[in-house]
Design goal:
Oligomer: heterodimer
Distance between the termini of chain B: 29 Å
Order of helices and strands of chain B: HHEEHHHHHHHHHHHHHHHHHH
Number of helices of chain A: 19
Number of strands of chain B: 2
Largest sheet of chain B: 2 strands, antiparallel
Radius of gyration of chain B: 22 Å
Strand order of the largest sheet of chain B: 1-2
Shape of chain A: globular
Mean pLDDT of chain A: 90
Number of helices of chain B: 20
Structural class of chain B: mainly alpha
Structural class of chain A: mainly alpha
Strand content of chain B: under 5%
Number of strands of chain A: 2
Largest sheet of chain A: 2 strands, antiparallel
Strand content of chain A: under 5%
Helix content of chain B: over 70%
Order of helices and strands of chain A: HHEEHHHHHHHHHHHHHHHHH
Helix content of chain A: over 70%
Chain lengths: 484, 500
């Protein structure tokens, strides 16, 4: 029954077609499509958790020619995050876009984006990865333009150009691999790739392309305007999911396919960039005057933490300690995904209610929108890395790995980044809890506040107390054990 | 035994569930909110009663939950936990009653009582934490739960005080976490065991252990308001009176002091810590804090600020007792954990009453207040005399044992002068207040006399809590040798810590 692997891709794709055919019903199709995707992803996850890695060669072609789909622990966790975030965002978007003229376009693109994401997480072949990456980038850019303002168009244009550049670099890398090793199947490449100029150049190009897409310093500058100016539901998926797709690929390449090629020096360089991103992004968030801009800069910082793990992972031999560190990385990425999408949805609620998101004028939010203020507080807990959020556990393991590997240099970065996160989160909360009329009169509690709160609760409670699942799933890899 | 697993969880849930429910109560549902609060406090008291009985008979109460590889969430009750759990439970009940009276007809009460319950949940969690990881979790949760309470009024000063508090405590929490992770990687897990665990790891580098001790104590010292990490405490007194009372008596400063006791006794082991030579430094810092806090208190005219600096000074008695090797000093330090709590909460209740009834915020406005508010002033006087260490109030017992312990440990030469100087300073800043209150007659009308024409000095809900806690601080001093008194219980703890 490995056919289950097709459904997380097929369901949103079919729904996209349906939404194209019936634009009047697009909202329903979008929400139901996201819900069904979640259902099949849950089924798939349970199967993988029980039976281990799953693989499927589409159309009966042998791997290397046809479309190979594979699901292991890491892909399943990413799929779960993407499916859970997208159902919450879809419910919110059904309210957010209920009056908009272009809602049919939104839903078609939304479902295409979901298709691309899920296909990317399941692809077992580098060319397919390239195709899904391109589809993901294009649908994300068009979604980012939906705001229609001049600023959002400019930001989206920049996003498009850099995204294309990134994909191009990735494609050249893929071509080099094909020329060098004669296959693009990731399982076969895992054994074939060995240190040499081809591997190094290909890795550099592919990583460079992905670094643009995951907004690693100094290639981060497109992210804050693009994410801050998009409509709130779109910002949520851009920040929570789309950048994570690029990160997911970097993990696949660095930790699995190119495991024998990556040197400690290369990993340290990436780590240094991550460290600068932590400080730079947090600084940007501290200075940001608008809520969504703060959230976007905070994404730059949080992604930086994820890259800090690479030099630590490179220094650890295969084994339990490495699995623990890798699990912490994935847990941090998941927590950030849920927390950041909740942040953007909460910002959307405030923006629709107040008509602006200037932080200095947000006094009275806690009185008028208590649920949203509570959501932002929960998000803050997760972004700072306080208990009981998943990121607290991840940070604990990160610091632990720092001590185990003796790479002390990262410790001040983690410490300063944490304090800076505390500074920008509590600047915001202080405003939200202070008296004022910035948000306007109290209206009835709309259910658009609920999806954000649920996402924030997943980040702060579920991923804190039930994080063991992550550490159980992550070691199930399709590409390290050589069992495929 | 399922009860041994569920009892610690039940004690946490008995304030967590009411807290969460209270958040959803509409503002005007005064009675259901009060019912939830009191029901929670009642259930908690019953459960704690069972816990005291069980721990006394050496039963094991433990809950474990794996949160990550190598990281377990452990709730475990030993004699030291029981001491702190009982103190928090009792004072929470009294403070809740006081707060219901104090905050009547003010806005955002559901939010206040919700966070109030979360704050107590975090404190009780600290008391029941069975390993360093769980302790760190609750230590950070306490920071989160108290921030909204300090910021409650929403005024610029309140927000500023809360921001300063947060800056200090986040920094402290970070240091504590780094120290805890470091120790964790060296030992593979740090459970709290009576007598300590680190003397078993003979191959660990002693300098590393000293650095870790420094990190842990600095992290905890922020909340325990050790000089020079005390700066947040005088700023945090902008909070409403019940919050200040809880903050100074049980929740925050005590969490820090309790953590220091845990680290010295149940992680390092007091004898091993003395071998490392880290205790002397800590005792000196505690002594400096005691004197510095008293000197600063002397110069404050604002009543709550004077009390705040007095807390800085008094909490370090606990640290001093913990840092002197020997069971008698341990007893003196630990029993002060309870005694200081009961006396200081009395003083803050009384200060809240003066502000509430007559608008008195400053010491020089207190002339003749004793005749106007005799109940409150009597309670205040008992608390103040106890702080000075006058028998038979509880504070005397603490100072007596601390002095004896210093003699026993052979450090009397410098500890006794510190204790005497501090008592003299305490007298110097408390006695003038008592003199003004009882013997001077009012020169000017009170700043805001709200109760003119009323026969009684205050509503019952405000008057009785300080009277009850003042009576309590007399009783635990008078009957210090009775079974289940704080002193007896602390002797039990000291016996278990020095068992080897």
């Amino acid at each position: 029954m490995n056919n289950l692997l097709i459904w997380p891709v097929a369901v949103p794709l079919l729904c996209a077609l349906l939404a194209l055919l019936w634009p009047n019903r697009s909202t329903w199709i979008g929400v139901v499509g996201s819900g069904l995707s979640l259902l099949v992803v849950l089924l798939l996850s349970m199967r993988v958790a029980e039976n281990g890695v799953m693989a499927l060669a589409l159309g009966g072609w042998s791997p290397g020619l046809g479309i190979a789909l594979r699901a292991d622990g890491l892909s399943v966790l990413m799929l779960l995050m993407s499916a859970l975030v997208s159902i919450a965002v879809a419910v919110y978007a059904s309210v957010y876009f209920s009056q908009a003229e272009r809602k049919a376009e939104f839903w078609v693109l939304w479902l295409l984006l979901l298709t691309a994401l899920h296909a990317l997480f399941l692809s077992g072949d580098l060319f397919n990865v390239y195709v899904t990456l391109e589809l993901l980038g294009l649908s994300a850019v068009v979604l980012a333009c939906l705001g229609g303002s001049r600023a959002s168009l400019q930001a989206a244009l920049q996003y498009l150009m850099l995204g294309l550049l990134g994909s191009l670099a990735f494609l050249i890398g893929v071509a080099l691999i094909y020329a060098g090793y004669g296959t693009l199947d990731m399982g076969a490449l895992r054994d074939a790739i060995e240190a040499g100029p081809t591997a190094w150049v290909a890795l550099c190009l592919m990583t460079g392309g992905l670094m643009i897409k995951s907004a690693l310093f100094p290639l981060h500058f497109w992210l804050p305007p693009a994410h801050a100016n998009a409509p709130a539901p779109v910002s949520a998926v851009l920040s929570a999911l789309v950048v994570k797709a690029a990160l997911y690929l970097i993990l696949r390449l660095w930790l699995e396919l190119f495991y024998g090629v990556v040197t400690q020096l290369a990993a340290t360089i990436v780590g240094v960039l991550g460290a600068i991103a932590v400080i730079w992004g947090s600084w940007g968030a501290m200075r940001a005057e608008r809520l969504k801009l703060m959230a976007a800069y905070s994404t730059v910082a949080q992604l930086g933490y994820l890259f800090l793990f690479l030099p630590l992972l490179a220094a650890l031999p295969q084994g339990l300690e490495r699995d623990v560190a890798l699990g912490a990385l994935v847990l941090l990425a998941l927590t950030h995904g849920f927390a950041k999408s909740a942040f953007f949805l909460a910002a959307g609620v405030i923006m629709q209610r107040a008509g602006h998101d200037r932080i200095a004028e947000l006094g009275g939010t806690a009185r008028v929108l208590p649920v949203t203020a509570f959501t932002i507080a929960l998000v803050g807990v997760a972004l700072i890395g306080l208990p009981p959020s998943g990121s607290f556990l991840a940070k604990w393991q990160l610091i632990s790995t720092v001590f185990v590997t003796g790479q002390w240099v990262w410790l001040p970065v983690i410490a300063i980044g944490t304090l800076m996160a505390g500074a920008y989160i509590f600047r915001l909360l202080g405003q939200a809890f202070s008296p004022g009329e910035g948000v306007g009169p109290s209206l009835s509690v709309g259910y658009e506040e609920v999806p954000a709160m649920l996402l924030a609760l997943i980040a702060t409670l579920l991923l804190g107390f039930w994080a063991s699942v992550v550490w159980e799933l992550v070691p199930l890899s399709a590409y390290t054990g050589g069992n495929i | 035994m399922t009860m041994s697993v569920w009892l610690p969880v039940g004690i946490l849930l008995s304030s967590l569930i009411p807290g969460v429910l209270i958040f959803f109560q509409p503002e005007e549902r005064h009675r259901s909110r009060t019912l939830l609060n009191l029901l929670g406090a009642l259930v908690k008291s019953l459960l704690v009663g069972v816990l005291i009985w069980g721990v006394f008979h050496e039963q094991v109460f433990e809950t474990r939950w794996t949160m990550a590889p190598g990281l377990e969430f452990v709730l475990h009750a030993d004699a030291l936990s029981v001491l702190f759990v009982s103190l928090s439970t009792l004072l929470w009940l009294v403070t809740t009653i006081y707060a219901i009276g104090y905050l009547e007809k003010t806005p955002h009460r559901s939010r206040f009582f919700g966070f109030f319950s979360l704050c107590v949940t975090a404190t009780v969690g600290l008391a029941l934490a069975g390993n360093l990881f769980t302790f760190v979790v609750f230590y950070e949760l306490l920071t989160l739960a108290t921030y909204p309470l300090i910021a409650h009024k929403g005024s610029p000063e309140a927000l500023r005080g809360a921001r300063i508090y947060l800056g200090y405590t986040l920094f402290g929490g970070l240091l504590l976490m780094i120290g805890a992770v470091w120790l964790h990687t060296l030992t593979g897990g740090v459970e709290f065991v009576e007598g300590g665990i680190l003397d078993q790891y003979v191959d660990l580098d002693q300098d590393t252990l000293r650095w870790i001790f420094l990190l842990l104590i600095m992290g905890l010292g922020v909340k325990a308001a050790l000089v020079p990490l005390h700066g947040w405490l005088p700023q945090a007194m902008v909070a409403p009176a019940p919050v200040s009372a809880l903050l100074h008596a049980v929740a925050v400063v005590k969490a820090g002091a309790f953590g220091i006791v845990r680290v010295i006794y149940d992680v390092y082991g007091v004898e091993f810590a003395a071998e490392l030579g880290v205790l002397t430094l800590l005792a000196v810092v505690a002594a400096i804090t005691i004197i510095y806090g008293s000197l600063k208190a002397l110069t404050q005219d604002h009543l709550k600020k004077r009390l705040a600096y007095s807390t800085v000074s008094q909490v370090s008695y606990i640290v001093l007792g913990a840092a002197i090797l020997g069971p008698v000093a341990t007893i003196g330090g630990l029993v002060h954990l309870v005694h200081q709590g009961v006396m200081k909460i009395t003083l803050f209740f009384a200060a809240g009453n003066y502000a509430e009834a007559l608008g008195i915020h400053r010491v020089n406005e207190m002339d003749g207040v004793g005749r106007r508010m005799p109940g409150t002033t009597l309670a205040f006087s008992i608390g103040a005399l106890g702080m000075i260490g006058i028998p038979p109030v509880a504070g005397f017992i603490s100072k007596w044992y601390l002095g004896l312990g210093a003699v026993e440990a052979g450090v009397a030469a410098w500890v006794l002068p510190v204790l005497i100087a501090s008592s003299l300073l305490n007298a110097a800043y408390f006695l003038p207040i008592l003199y003004r209150a009882w013997f001077k007659s009012p020169v000017a009308p009170w700043p805001e006399d709200k109760s003119s024409g009323c026969a009684r000095e205050l509503p019952d809900l405000l008057l009785w809590p300080p009277v009850v806690t003042a009576a309590l601080s007399l009783l635990i001093g008078l009957f210090a040798a009775a079974p289940y008194s704080p002193l007896e219980w602390v002797e039990l703890i000291a016996g278990r810590e020095y068992r080897q």
